[in-house]
Amino acid sequence: MICHLGLGSNLGDRLAHLQSAVACLARHGLRVQAASSVYETSPVGCTVPQPDYLNAAVAIETDLDPHRLVSLLLEIERELGRTRPARNTPRTIDLDLLLVGQTESTDAQAVVPHPRLHERLFVLEPLCDIAGEALHPVLHTPMTALRDQLRASGTERVRLFAPAYSIMRNC
Question: What is the CATH number of the domain that holds 88?
Fold first, then answer.
């Protein structure tokens, strides 16, 4: 099955963290099918000032069910030095399960689609690079239309940082 993941980093060598994450996904048997460009984005939902993020998205092929996939993503985050002192704090790496095809699940351990996917330009911009015509499983709206709505609101700052191949270097 094809799944889409969001990647983010705002500590240290942000691009190297994204590259390491993509390499780890492959090492753990997740077959990376496509990668977005890398975008520099302003922090969202943070109560204290923090550095800008680099964000990207990847499409992977896996046989893992959403629960096992989320567990693996958390394991990879820990492997790459992620700590969770509090919600919305700076991080070396953040890996989020965004979509599992057209699957809908409200299970607390593996909610799909990601519950805030449609509210975050920093997620939709890279996701549209690789799955722009995909329909949101709940809203039944193409990702490009959701992205365009958020672009029009102008509340987030998102700019192209690097081409897609830049996060695939270690694969």
Answer: 3.30.70.560
Structural domain for 62, as ranges: 2-167
Count of domains for the chain: 1
Neighbours of 144 (CB within 10 A): 15
Q: Which tens digits make up the pLDDT trace of 23-80?
A: 999 999 999 999 999 999 988 877 778 899 999 999 999 999 999 999 999 999 999 9
Owner of token pair 């990647």: 7
Here the tokens at position 100 are 């599992």
- The whole-number pLDDT of residue 170 equals 59
Q: What does the alpha-carbon distance between residue 52 and residue 4 come to, in Å, rounded to a whole number?
A: 22
Which residues are within 8 A (CB) of 141 and not within 5 positions of it... i.e. 6 or more apart?
A: 118, 135
Q: Six-digit token pair at 59?
A: 């499409």
**Catalytic residue numbers?**
82, 91, 94, 96
